[in-house]
Amino acid sequence: MPTSKGKTLGILALAGVQPYQEKANEEYMDTPQQKHFKKILDAWRVQLREEVDRTVTHMQDEAANFPDPVDRAAQEEEFSLELRTRDRERKLIKKIEKTLQLIEEDDFGFCNSCGIEIGIRRLEARPTADLCIECKTLAEIKERQMAG
After folding, report:
1. Which one of 25, 39, 61, 104 is most buried, counting C-beta atoms within 10 A?
2. Tens digit of pLDDT for each residue in 64-95?
3. Per-residue buried b or exposed e for 85-103, using 16+ beta carbons within 10 Å of the residue's own CB
């Protein structure tokens, strides 16, 4: 099957891990499925941590005291955007670690709200998902109603 940088015939592989191929009569969230998602989550966490390390190195290497206020402001804005991105990634790393804990506790893949299976394809798209698509949709509708 032809591949190109994590893609297989148009299917994106999250964190470089190919999508799970379900087998006939396979039980939901059995050991092979749990191992698959643990592999995705571990790889994703490593990628995010590498980004954090690159940011620290970049900011140390690029930090300069520009005499021109415009140059200084541009650098500060760049650093600010980078730090905001890293903060979101830091929160995502915590969510990944929480999800890995759920796998260890054999409680991964089920909706926190209604208890049904979240589903392999949804988890492939968002391994940290803790709501089924129906409950997530309802939560987003409620959120929009509260905001507006």
Report:
1. 39
2. 777 888 888 888 898 899 889 989 999 999 99
3. ebeebeeebeebeebbebb
- What predicted TM-score, i.e. pTM, was given to this entire model? 0.78
> Between the CA atoms of 90, 119, 33 and 89, what dihedral angle is there, to the nearest 10 degrees?
-10
**80 contacts 39 by C-beta, under 8 angstroms:** no
Task: Give the span between the Cα atoms of 43 and 63, in whole angstroms.
Answer: 30
The residue extents of the domains of the chain are 28-108, 111-148
Q: How is residue 15 annotated by DSSP?
A: G
Please report the pLDDT score of residue 15 as a whole number: 67
Q: Identify the CA nearest to 109 among candidates 93, 127, 92.
A: 127
Whether residue 136 contacts residue 114, with contact meaning beta carbons closer than 8 Å, is answered with: no
